[in-house]
Amino acid sequence: MASSIGSVPPSQIATYTTANIQALTTQDVAALTTAQIAILSTTQVAAFTVSQMVFSAQQLQAFSNDDIAAFSPADIEALKSNQVQALSAGQVDAITSGQLAGLSTASIREFSRAQVGYLTTAQLNALSTDQIQAISTAQLGGLTTGQLAALSTANLSALSSKVTQLTTAQVRALTTDQLNALSTADMREFSATQLGALTTDQLGGSAPATCRRC
Prior knowledge:
mainly alpha
C-alpha cells in the first residue's frame, strides 16, 4: 500500500517527535517530499534509524549541511553508493570526523573522485590508515595539492605504492617530511617524470638524480 505521508503539510512534519520519526516505515520515508525533509530539525534527523536510510538522491540533497552532520555514524555507513555520490560539496564537507571513522573501507571507495576533493584536511587526517589505503587510484587523482601537502606523514605513507599514480603537480606538493615517511621501495616506484618533478628542497638538498632513496 502506498504511503500517504506526502500529503502531510511540512508544518505538521515539523512537530513530529523522535518517536514519530522512528515510527515511519521505509515506504513513508521514501515518500517524504523535499519540502518536508527541508523542514526537519537536526534532532529529528538524528532520530532516523539505519533501516530508514532509504532516501533517494533528490531527498538527500534536500537535507541541510547541519542535517548531514546530525545523522549517526551508522546511518552514514548505511548509505549506498548512489546515495553517497548524491551528496553535494557542502554536505561532504559537513561529514564529521566521528561519522568518517565509522565508515568501512568499502564505503570510503563509494565517494566519487570529485567528492574526495571536497574533503577538508581535517577530515582526511581523521581517516585511519586502513581507510586511506582503501582510496582508489581514481579517487587519489581528485585530491588537490593543498590536501596532499596537509596529509599526515602516517596517512601519506599508508598510500604506499599508490603514490606512483600522483600527478607531477601533486608530487611537487609533497613536503620533505612526507617524502621521508615513504619507504625506499615506494620512492623507487616513482616514474622518471615524477622524480623529475621533485625539487632539491623537497629532497632535503639532494638533486633527484643523486637521491639515494629514489
